Amino acid sequence: MSQPENNLRVRRTQRLLREALIELIEERGFDALTVGEIAERAMVSRAAFYRNYQDKYALVEQIFAEAMQALLEAVAEPRTAHSPEIWVRFFEHIAEYERLYRALLGRRGSPWFVLKMRASVVDLVKEFGRLVPPGAAHMYPKSDEFVPDLVATLFVEAITWWLDQGRPYPPQEIANRCMLLAGAIFKETSTWQ
Amino acid sequence: MSQPENNLRVRRTQRLLREALIELIEERGFDALTVGEIAERAMVSRAAFYRNYQDKYALVEQIFAEAMQALLEAVAEPRTAHSPEIWVRFFEHIAEYERLYRALLGRRGSPWFVLKMRASVVDLVKEFGRLVPPGAAHMYPKSDEFVPDLVATLFVEAITWWLDQGRPYPPQEIANRCMLLAGAIFKETSTWQ
DNA sequence: CGCTCCTTGTCTCATTTGAGACAGATCTTC
DNA sequence: GAAGATCTGTCTCAAATGAGACAAGGAGCG
Q1: DSSP letter string over B31-84?
Q2: Could you say which of A92, A129, B13, B164 would form a disulfide bridge with A171 (CB–CB 3.0 to 4.6 Å)?
Q3: Do B12 and A45 touch (CB under 8 A)?
Q4: pLDDT at residue B128 is higher than 90
């Protein structure tokens, strides 16, 4: 259902369905959509939809998974993998996929995505979190799940705000601001326990 | 090959091919394109291309024909069909299909389109030409093919200029200027013979 | 409750398509 | 001009899709 499929027809059908879904989320919101509507917009039969995806959630989940894949790749570039630079890459990725994230995280999306997004960012923060405030390594107890969660919430909130405002400043700057805020959280919580 | 086809797969294939062609004309110019390239961009097999079109010229011809159809419909709206207003509709249509006309008429297009476009506009001018300069009806000998041709050239040239400049002013104004110029031609040639 | 309307998920069969091979044309490059 | 590559246009067969029907399950409404 989601393994790498190299058949051209299958890839095309899935691409058309993905594009149709994003369009329709923008127009009417995810919750209001029916499978038939998505298929019609994609110029694909409803039967073909069900041959490719279990339901509309499976479709959006694939979209999401691919975006996360791309996000990881953007963030894990060798040269930047171990510097605060990764958060600039992070927001550059968001900007590149703006349409997708606006649709999924915005008003017409669903709280569901926000939760999934946050979960993904939590993983990122856990892996790269020590790099957030330059020089603040190991400042929070590694076993503590609360701090990464908090920082991830901050980042997701920042994304939606940033996109809603029409990206008032460049990735570099929003990344810096987020890092400063995250740094403050790190410093505060590092004195706990 | 171009009769109304209501099969969803056929319509989808043709739509994908049309979109791919426009994209590729923008990127590399019409002449440089191969059928295989167009098919690949469209995510359609080369075999499917040939099942739907004789060659790339047939494809672009269909695109062109559909645009002309839309142009005629835009121009022939009942309420405006018999007033100089049609030339405003004309440029509004151009603006709506800007991407298409830029691709076809611009540098990356082909002189071929310019000729086809001019031919279509000649027909328009012949049908509605008397409306160009308000009150200048019947000012040129109807059998004279030269004047409509000249005016059509003027209009096509105006289109490419207008689009290349990024549409410096609204359809209303470019239409007015063209009508004034056409009017001058009409007046001049009306004294001939 | 009962009724209607819509959506879902699944199925079958006809049809369009994709993959790939092919000969011949055309373009490149030496 | 010869050789190698690329493109064209056509073909075959397997595979994915489209049309349409179907039962089941809500959702809205009187």
Answers
A1: TT--HHHHHHHHT--HHHHHHH-SSHHHHHHHHHHHHHHHHHHHHT-GGGTTST
A2: A92
A3: no
A4: no
Looking across all nucleic acid strands, the nucleotide with the smallest C1' to CA distance from residue B49 is C17
Residues from chain B that touch A11, judged by Cβ atoms under 8 A, are 43
Residues in chain A: 193
Q: Do B13 and B52 meet the contact criterion of CB atoms below 8 Å apart?
A: yes
Average pLDDT over every residue of A65-93: 85
- Is there a contact between A15 and B45 if contact means CB atoms under 8 Å apart? no
Mean pLDDT, to the nearest integer, of B74-98? 84
**pLDDT computed for residue A107 by the predictor:** 83
Distance in angstroms: CA A49, C1' C11:
14
- Can you tell me which residue has the tokens 């995250």? A182
Decide if A137 contacts A118 (C-beta within 8 A).
no
Rg of chain B's alpha carbons, rounded to an integer? 18
CATH of domain B1-53: 1.10.10.60
Angle value at C-alpha A186, between A143 and A164, nearest 5 degrees: 110
Q: Is strand D in 7 Å reach of the CB of B31?
A: no
Kindly list the domain boundaries of chain A, sorted by start residue.
Answer: 1-53, 57-189
Q: Which nucleotide is nearest to A54 (CA to C1')?
A: C9
Q: Which of B51, B3, B40, B13 is nearest to A43 (CA)?
A: B13
